């Protein structure tokens, strides 16, 4: 599991957008998000680097 701080998440739609973007590359990917702390937990077979890139490309910059 990978935990990241992500900027710009404001609603459930944002979480769905991140999940859909990751599932294009890994259909089994799961995302748990906390809007208050701006963190996401990603369970995926993707590398951490690719995961960060996909989330950023979806419009949500990864802070760490």
UniProtKB/TrEMBL annotation:
<dbReference type="Pfam" id="PF00403">
    <property type="entry name" value="HMA"/>
</dbReference>
<dbReference type="InterPro" id="IPR006121">
    <property type="entry name" value="HMA_dom"/>
</dbReference>
<protein>
    <submittedName>
        <fullName>Copper chaperone</fullName>
    </submittedName>
</protein>
<dbReference type="InterPro" id="IPR036163">
    <property type="entry name" value="HMA_dom_sf"/>
</dbReference>
<dbReference type="InterPro" id="IPR017969">
    <property type="entry name" value="Heavy-metal-associated_CS"/>
</dbReference>
<dbReference type="GO" id="GO:0046872">
    <property type="term" value="F:metal ion binding"/>
</dbReference>
<keyword id="KW-0479">Metal-binding</keyword>
<feature type="domain" description="HMA">
    <location>
        <begin position="1"/>
        <end position="63"/>
    </location>
</feature>
């Amino acid at each position: 599991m990978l935990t990241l701080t992500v900027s710009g998440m404001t609603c459930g739609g944002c979480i769905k957008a991140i999940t859909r973007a990751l599932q294009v590359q890994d259909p089994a990917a799961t995302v748990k998000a906390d809007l208050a702390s701006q963190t996401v937990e990603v369970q995926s077979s993707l590398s951490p680097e690719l995961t960060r890139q996909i989330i950023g490309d979806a419009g949500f910059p990864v802070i760490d």
